[in-house]
Design a protein that fits this description.
Blueprint (H helix, E strand, L loop, with lengths): L8 H17 L4 E4 L2 H8 L4 E7 L5 E6 L1 H7 L4 E4 L6 H9 L5 E4 L6 H10 L4 E4 L1 H9 L3 H24 L6 H14 L6 E2 L6 E2 L2 E5 L36 E10 L2 E10 L5 H20 L6 H15 L15 E5 L6 E6 L11 E4 L2 E4 L3 E4 L2 E5 L4 E3 L7 E3 L1
Parallel strand pairs: 1-5, 3-4, 5-6, 11-19
Antiparallel strand pairs: 1-2, 2-3, 7-8, 9-10, 10-11, 12-13, 12-14, 14-17, 15-16, 17-18
Helix pairs in contact: 1-6, 7-8, 9-10
């Protein structure tokens, strides 16, 4: 996070107001938030602690460490330092009274052991899952959030341009990854990306050169790639990048907590005709989905359209993986986590709304030979969609 970055107080206030309306609608008295991305979303900081949001009244952020930084980064009015999480129930009773009978936690990410521990501390009559309410409240981005993703896209464009200027035969995949990652870090990338988990961060920078891309399983998000060993199966490998082979580069960038997730095809010198054709087909599917994306349609329609387009182009055998190994999604929500809801997948009925942001990724796998594809970030507008991604929708021959 850059030193001059701070989420505006109006953003935090609107987010708190939205989740409080959801709590009231679902007869929940209070929500306890511990996961780092959720803390960042509702407070503006990811310092270690517990955020308590009552259905009515001001929230309070109980910080274990570091209190000074939390107060500098967050616009939450009530920020209290604690020595132990066990202090929280008593402080809540002192602040709000003993009126909270139904409490919600993030059941989708909170470890069972931790939840059982919290149950011994609180005296609620009922404990319920608040995850769906949080996830739904985060789906539609504000204009300010979209502007942050635009800034991340500017950085991503620079990283891809750097990759195109510096790709050479002879680098190993992992070596070249380190080269452009150093550039990205120098210009603001945090070095890791967040995914939905309790305190989960992952590595998300992948190069699949030539036959690396033809390995079954490379499309399983977010851990695509073959990695350096069975113990480290995602990311770049030690394979040497050769002249005249297709190179898929998939980069996740995190700038001040907001992500992009983009893929482009490269080649040093030239690209084989079959791989070039598949790469062009992926771009056609990509552009077709952007033409179809608009408010009011269920996300599965984009998935269905991508299948139809791949079949029409003659690539159904390779699209979204080889036969019997195909994935059933073609995109995912994105924001303060790399993969957010909704997923653009088979049968998913979530309706597109203005302000939703997605990473769309039509990809093809020619088993044991190569992968081809493209991935871009877009936002749903009032009448259709627009690309947030600034990287040219093209194939880069270096």
């Amino acid at each position: 996070m850059t030193q001059d970055f701070k989420i505006p107080s109006t953003e935090i206030e609107n987010r708190i107001s939205t989740i409080q309306k959801a709590l009231k609608k679902n007869s929940i008295d209070g929500l306890c938030i511990l996961q780092h991305a959720d803390l960042f979303y509702f407070t503006g900081t990811a310092q270690n602690g517990l955020l308590f949001i009552p259905a009515e009244g001001d929230p309070c952020f109980f910080v274990i460490r570091y209190l000074q930084r939390a107060r500098e980064e967050s616009s939450i009015k009530n920020i209290t330092g604690i020595k132990s999480i066990r202090d929280v129930p008593g402080l809540i009773r002192d602040m709000y009274g003993d009126i909270f009978k139904t409490l919600a936690f993030e059941f989708d990410v909170l470890p069972v052991r931790d939840f059982e521990y919290y149950k011994t501390m609180f005296s609620a009559s009922e404990y319920v899952d608040g995850s769906a309410l949080i996830i739904e409240s985060r789906m539609v981005k504000s204009p300010w959030e979209i502007s942050q993703m635009d800034k991340t896209a500017d950085l991503s464009r620079k990283v891809f341009e750097f990759a195109a200027d510096n790709l050479r035969p002879g680098y190993s995949e992992i070596e070249f990854t380190g080269i452009y990652e150093a550039f990205a870090r120098k210009h603001g990338h945090s070095g890791h990306v967040k995914v939905r988990g309790y305190r989960e961060r992952i590595y998300n920078s992948h190069i699949l050169s030539g036959t690396s891309g033809g390995i079954v399983g490379v499309l399983d998000a977010p851990a695509s790639g073959i990695g350096t060993s069975p113990a480290l199966p995602n990311g770049a490998s030690h394979k040497i990048i050769e002249k005249g082979e297709p190179v898929m580069i998939d980069i996740g960038i995190n700038l001040n907590g907001y992500h992009t997730d983009e893929t482009r095809m490269f080649a040093a010198g030239s690209m084989p005709e079959k791989a070039y054709g598949a790469s062009k087909a992926a771009i056609e599917i990509h552009n077709h989905l952007l033409e179809k994306a608009r408010p009011g349609i269920p996300v599965h329609e984009l998935y269905d359209e991508s299948i139809k387009k791949a079949d029409k182009l003659g690539y159904s055998d390779y699209y979204l993986g080889p036969e019997n190994e195909k994935v059933i999604f073609v995109g995912h929500g994105i924001g303060i986590e790399l993969v957010e809801q909704p997923i653009i997948a088979k049968g998913k009925k979530t309706i597109l709304k203005p302000g939703m942001t997605f990473s769309i990724e039509p990809k093809l796998v020619c088993k044991n030979r190569f992968s081809a594809g493209i991935e871009s970030v877009f936002v749903v507008t009032d009448t259709g969609c627009r690309l947030i991604s600034k990287v040219p929708v093209d194939i880069f021959i270096c």
